[in-house]
Amino acid sequence: MNLLTFLGTASYSPTTYTLADKQHTTCYCPAAVAHFYRPDTTLVVVTDAAKAKHFETLADEISAVTRPVAVSIPDGHSEADLWQIFEALTEHVKEKDELIVDITNGFRSLPFLSFLAIAFLRLARQVTVQNVFYGAWDARNEANESPIFDLTPFVTLLDWTIATDRFTRFGDASDLADLLRAGMPPGPLMGKDLEARALGHSLKDTAKAMENVSLALRLTRPLETMTSAAHLTQTLAEVGPRISQTARPYGLLARQIQTAYQPLALAGAPLARENWPVNLQIQLDLVERYLTQGQIVQAVTLAREWLVSLLVYRFEAGSMTDYEGDRKPVELALSNVAERVRGGSRPPRHSRFDAALQALPDHQEIGKLWADLTHLRNDMAHVGMKSVSSDAVSLRRRAEALYPRLSQIGQTLLAEVL
User: Given 166, 226, 326, 345, which residue has the most CB atoms within 10 angstroms?
Assistant: First the structure.
C-alpha cells in the first residue's frame, strides 16, 4: 500500500492532526498519515521550488515508517503543464496498487487533477483507493488539534453517477446494485440492531428490484418489465429516505431513477383487459427506448410482437398471450395480407381474422410492415450465418426506419389512447 501526497511552497505551521483515535504532531499532514498507516512508499508530488523548500524535511520525518519518493511536476502555468502533471500522478502508480491519497497541501488545480487521476487509476489500472484525506488546519480547535477529513465517499460519488447513468440510459443495474449492497451493515450488526436490519433489508430489496427490471429489459420481457418497474418505483418511494441517510449519493440520484422507470410501470395487472391500451402504449415506448439505447435486436423482436398484440386488442380477441388461440390466427392473417401485397403465389392459410384485417383502411401498409419486421427479425436471428445477410449498420438503419411506420399504425388503430 502506498501514499500519494502533495507539497506546495507555503509555510506550514505545526499542529496535532487527529484521525479517529489517532494523533500526530507535525507541520505536514502527510507525515501524520504516513505514521498512521505506514505505507510502503510515499509519493510526494512537488515542483522544483516545493521540493527545495520542504521535501528533505518531510522525508527525514517519515523515513522511519515509509520510503519517501519525490515526484517532480512543472508549475502548471499552461495546459501542457497540466497534462504533464496528470501523467506524473499516474505513471508512478502500478496496476492493482492499493493507494491512500492526501490532498491537504495540493495547490492550484492539483486537488482537482488528483481526483481525476484517482478515477483514471481505478478504472485503467484497477487501483484500490483505500482513503482520500484532507487535513483541515483551518478547522483546528483551541488545543491546536486539526481534524483529518475522510473524503473517500466523494470518490465513490463518481461510481454512483456512472452506475446510475448506466441504469437509466441502458437498463444495466449491475453496478448500482453492487453499490447498494456494499452499503449493507455487517451481518452480526443486522442481527442485533433493528435500525441496521431495516437499512440492510432496504438496500437489499432496492438492489433486487433494480436487477429484476434490468433483466426483464435485457431479455425483452415487456410484461415483466411493467410489473418490475412498478415494484421498483414503489420500493424507491418507500425506502428511499432510509437509504439516503447512509448512501448519500443515492439520495441525490434517486429522482433520476424514478423519472427513467416510472413511464414503464404499470401498477395493475398488464394482462387485465382494461389495462391493454396502457400496456400497448408502454410496449411501443419500449421499442423506441430500445432503439435509442442501440439495443436493436430487442427493439425489432418487441416491435413484431407488438403489432400482433395491437391487432389482438383491435379484433377483441380473448387473450394477448394465447398463441394458438389468438396470436397465431392474427399472424396468419398478417402473413396472408403480406403475401397478397407482394404478389406472391403462396395460397393463403385461413384465419378467422382475415376479413377483419382486410377491412382496416391501412391493411396493405400493415401487411408490408409485418413482412419487413419478419424479414428483419429473421436476418438478425441468423446472426449473419447466411450467404446473403445485412451488415450491422444496415440492420440498425432498417430498424430505425420501421419505428415511425409502427407508431403511425398504432395512432391509427388506437387513436383514443395512443
Answer: 226
To the nearest whole number, what is the mean pLDDT of the chain? 89
Taking only the tens place, the pLDDT of each residue in 336-371 is: 999 998 877 788 889 999 999 999 999 999 999 999
**Cell numbers standing for residue 83:** 497534462
Q: Which three cell numbers stand for residue 358?
A: 382486410
DSSP 242: H
Residues in CB range of 144: below 8 A, 6 or more apart: 14, 15, 16
Domains of the chain and any CATH numbers: 2-150 (3.40.50.10640), 156-267 (no CATH), 279-418 (1.20.120)
412 burial level (CB within 10 Å; 0-12, 13-18, 19+): middle
At 224, the amino acid letter reads: E
- pTM for the predicted model, two decimal places: 0.81
The dihedrals phi and psi of 102, each to the nearest 5 degrees, come to -115, 120
Residues sharing a CB contact under 8 Å with residue 385, sequence separation 6 or more, in sequence order: none
Residue 280's nearest CA partner among 292, 291, 267, 266 is 266
The pLDDT tens digits of the residues spanning 200-257 come to 888 899 999 999 999 999 999 999 999 999 999 999 888 877 777 777 777 778 888 9
Cell of 39: 505505507
